[in-house]
Design goal:
This protein is mainly alpha-helical and 70 residues long. It contains two helices and no strands. It has one domain. α1 runs antiparallel to α2.
Length: 70
């Protein structure tokens, strides 16, 4: 599973790659690299959304338990 640190490293690497490649004509490898970067970024976004959903569900469960034990 990705950690926030790993995700930040992937995004940083992607940004640096795009910056370096922007100065040159893009070939098939560069285009593939960009697609990989975009996919990694989308995956990170989905993981963040999933983490938020888990957090919300845990908070709701906590409240239910609290209400039933009072």
């Amino acid at each position: 599973m990705f950690t926030l640190r790993t995700l930040m490293i992937v995004v940083l690497f992607g940004c640096l790659s795009i910056g370096v490649l922007a100065c040159e004509k893009k070939g098939p490898a560069e285009k593939a690299g960009e697609k990989i970067d975009q996919t990694a970024e989308k995956a990170g976004d989905k993981m963040e959304e999933a983490g938020e959903a888990v957090k919300e569900t845990a908070e709701e469960a906590k409240e239910e338990v609290k209400e039933k034990t009072e």
